[in-house]
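Assess this one:
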Amino acid sequence: MTGTDVHNEAEDSGPGGYAAARLRLLTEGARSGPPRRAALASLTDGWLAGLFDAAASAAGGLRGVCLVAVGGYGRGELSPRSDLDLLLLHDGGDPGAVAALADRLWYPVWDLGLALDHSVRTPAEARKTAAGDLKVQLGLLDARHLAGDLALTASLRTAVLADWRNQAPRRLPELRELCAERAERQGELQYLLEPDLKEARGGLRDATALRAVAASWLADAPREGLADARRRLLDVRDALHLTTGRATDRLSLQEQDQVAAELGLLDADTLLRQVYESARVISYAGDVTWREVGRVLRARAVRPRLRAMLGGGKPAPERSPLAEGVVEQDGEVVLARTARPERDPVLPLRAAAAAAQAGLPLSLHAVRRMAATVRPLAAPWPAEAREQLVTLLGSGRPTVEVWEALEAEGLVSRLLPDWERVRCRPQRNAVHVWTVDRHLIETAVRASAFTRRVSRPDLLLVAALLHDIGKGWPGDHSVAGEIIAKDVAGRIGFDRADADVLATLVRHHLLLVETATRRDLDDPATVHAVARAVGTQSTLELLHALTEADALATGPAAWSTWRGSLVADLVRRVSAALAGDDPDEPEPGAPSAEQERLAVEAFRTGGPVLSLRAQTEPPARREPEGTGDAEGGAAGPEPLGVELVVAVPDQPGVLPCVAGVLAVHRLTVRTAELRALELPAGVDDGSVLLLNWRVAAEYGSLPQAARLRADLVRALDGSLDVAGRLAERDAAYPRRRGVVAPPPRVTVAPAASRHATVIEVRAQDAPGLLFRIGRALEDAKVRVRSAHVSTLGANAVDAFYVTGPAGAPLPPEEAASVARRLEDTLRART
């Protein structure tokens, strides 16, 4: 039976004919989805039009009245148990006749047991009600004529749309607030095990709100995938209505298998993944659209004042640089005009890291341009790509929104193909509140708060991202995840030792909490079994932080003070079992001929001497830190940045002076080593400080070596006020809200060296950080014997071997005091 046949039968047979035709339509196995919804709407249109015509004829051919479908029925989205949203519109001529007509319309609908949402109004009353009730306004935007005076319907539609567009600056913020309140009540559709398809964030109500925004002509939602997402949710609701026989939008657990079968899907998990994917598209479209609405409304509010000041001119939007090829414009992160995505495969990660660090969203246009033009990163990744991934993961809460923007355009699965198996994967466990993929990102967010507790924050953050990656495969997810993590670690550029640590962390990410809560900790065999699995103190430290981050990201029921104390007790016992002799200060390698030449020249001239050269490494052997400038896939040695070697006659203040000059020139320090170098035989007695830096320009090109040397000479003789220059620059660029990093942590490493006191600093990397550390150590009257500085993502992990004026290690009380003062100095700045 075709849609026309059903329509005709309903008209010919009255309510009984409509009911029979409706039943046949809903039980036809061959028709579902949009065709069935359209046929059901057409069938209902014909029946209601027949009722209207018969009632109007009985009233003597009533004029100036029409029947209008609004809301979901107006859009033609009739699910099997949907309400009929109807408006009886009249010109106010004969209220008694209109009331009688309404009775003849509503009672047949009720007699069939159909849900009815009805009203009787004049156009003026309809507009007045809409002005005071946003939900009425939204329903009228979808008004569709069914029967009666067509001109009356057309005039109302025209007036309602004009009202909506005129009042959009006031009504759209109200609509946004309504959506936010609903999301707070109902949760996010893309993560719920028993979601409300209509009311939850990313559901059908939000899709309708996006249509209303588009109707305002103020902004529009990204269209790609949005119609398909809406259709899939409507299909699921249809199946839910048919399997339950009820007008419900909540997809409860006990009904998911039946709904999946009705839709021809493999199982309930496949159903939920489809729902989650659809909700994710709608949620992301909402985020982008509401940002655009806010930007347009802000521009409208500011424009009259600017025009008055500028005499009618249109000001160019401000663009503040964030990283190479990445700028901030109007509250979003966009690509610089000079960016060349097709030549820069690291750009998506660099842009994402910059956005997360600044606490800003990635522009939709920027993400789509990168997705369309950036070529994939070759394995192993260049060092810069790995560093930018770590920076993104360590940015805290802003990471989530930026990661979702990358996912929306398929960039995450392109960077990490194994991600596809866990994307939108439900977790049927009451303890878990997120899908697998969101849980992994949430774990990285939690782990970012623990980066000061570990010596390798980069390994902690990547382990957080990968610890449940095996859940996309059959069997024990920890065993599968170990294999995947090792492979991913190699692909993204970690060396073999680091890849082994990551694999161990993923394999044993449940070990501490399961052992602490299920085993006898007083049994030495328990402690030694954990020690054998973990292997080293540093891995134990990482596993402890990962365990807590994983539990906190799972849900409120997964972690407690009691569990935390049990795990901490186990860690203390295992740490004692692993304890051995601590390593002494690392012996520096023999200076190269070039370093000796610079040292001799510095001693003879009495001033600083430096050299700049590109630093490379072979593709098969990667260091755990550094910043690469090359495109992925290049053959032969790969540039890591620039190596800067500075030789200076031994004197106070060298470290802060050199670090400050580099900060003034906007050079990012990735690694640094400082050591005293005795001059070779045959040269006058003396000592030269040799500083070996790996640096990269924040954006733009590197300064000339001659200019760096000139500023270094001025800094050493006191004529260049480095602190003042840095303060001026900070004042010129007000701080963005950005990432809220964990506070700096400064500790004294116990018994780490027989010849010096080792002060360890873990802090958020920032311009001038090393300058502030060096100056604070100088103010404390300690001598830096050597320094080992590394930047892992956005985290600085530095070790300073210091002595007193006489060259001996500091007494314990003095060392603790120096560490406290240094930590206070760094915290005051943050």
